[in-house]
Design brief:
Layout lengths: L2 H17 L18 H10 L1 H12 L10 H15 L6 H16 L6 H10 L3 H14 L17 H8 L3 H8 L4 H6 L4 H14 L4 H15 L3 H7 L1 H15 L7 H14 L5 H19 L1
Helix pairs in contact: 1-2, 1-3, 1-5, 1-16, 3-4, 3-5, 4-5, 4-7, 5-6, 5-16, 7-8, 7-9, 11-12, 11-16, 12-14, 12-16, 13-14
């Protein structure tokens, strides 16, 4: 698939994810937060296109030298570009997911190769990729890895420690995989996105893109407790939210499902339970679905 097409699909996926409504607990087209609004996410979804194009163009030229894909550099460049336009961290997680997926699509001859190639690219990440990822996390001012003593992303000596210990991007994400679902996905060939999110969205999108987006989000959240909620409020709260979603989905074919969905959105918003990790997984799942169509 051509680099320009992959980039456009990444932009489409980012914009569709935030446009899905009512997507409980997150910013969507009828819900803003105090510190970030719907338009922030639309802008960030648009401005990453050139970076994805550059990343996939480079991936096409690596000729089996997977270390030269420079995934970390392109994640960092996407975050820097977003930072020029908006003041909030809207897409670090999405770029952490979509850059490897995009580069994998660029080197795959068929859709069926993408998931395994994600694993190959991640296995071959470098220390420089890890350093660039740390810089991206710090620019985005994102939580989740920075409160851990080992290879603390907020430490002034963090990058020196990475180099001294020869820690690649895969290595540092593996350290985080126990408490961060995105890190877990990136170090295990993305089973949630490929095995849960993608088939859900792909089955429903011909009926309604909005319905497909919301139900993909809910399906993932019902099965995978959100680690952003876990880090803020604890595992029990995150599991409780997932249990509520599982119950909510039993009413998805009822006439009053939308009312129940809006009530749940209000509940999460009022309690500041933000399933932001699930939103990132949803965006990546949508991206995979459109790549499937492209192949």
């Amino acid at each position: 698939m051509e680099s320009k097409e992959i980039a456009k699909l990444a932009q489409i996926a980012s914009v569709l994810e935030v446009s899905g409504y009512p997507k409980p607990g997150n910013v969507h087209r009828t819900r803003n937060f105090d510190d970030m609004v719907f338009e922030d996410f639309i802008i960030s979804g648009v401005v990453i296109g050139e970076t994805i194009r550059e990343a996939t163009t480079q991936a096409k030229s690596i000729n089996g030298n997977y270390e030269s894909a420079e995934l970390g550099r392109f994640i960092l460049e996407a975050v820097k570009e977003t930072d020029k336009w908006i003041a909030n961290n809207t897409n670090l997680g999405i770029m952490m997911m979509c850059v490897p997926i995009a580069c994998s699509a660029a080197i795959s001859n068929s859709f069926d190769e993408i998931q395994s190639n994600v694993g190959i690219l991640m296995d071959n990440t470098t220390v420089d990729d890890a350093v660039n990822l740390y810089d991206a996390i710090n620019i985005a001012d994102a939580g989740g890895m920075g409160d851990q003593e080992e290879f603390d992303v907020m430490s002034e000596k963090a990058k020196d420690e990475l180099r001294a210990n020869n820690q690649t991007m895969f290595d540092v994400l593996k350290i985080s995989a126990g408490w961060d679902r995105l890190a877990n996905e990136l170090t295990s060939s993305m089973p949630v996105c490929f095995d849960i999110g993608f088939p859900t969205f792909n089955e429903l999108k011909s009926e309604s893109i909005n319905k497909a987006t919301v139900l993909t989000f809910l399906t993932i959240l019902s099965q995978i407790p959100d680690t952003l909620i876990s880090r803020k409020y604890g595992d029990e709260v995150a599991q409780s939210v997932s249990d509520k979603v599982k119950e909510l989905l039993t009413f998805k074919d009822d006439d009053d499902f939308l009312d129940k969905l809006n009530e749940f959105d209000d509940y999460l918003y009022e309690n500041k339970f933000n399933p932001g990790t699930t939103a990132d997984l949803t965006a990546a799942s949508i991206f995979i679905s459109y790549l499937y169509d492209g192949f």
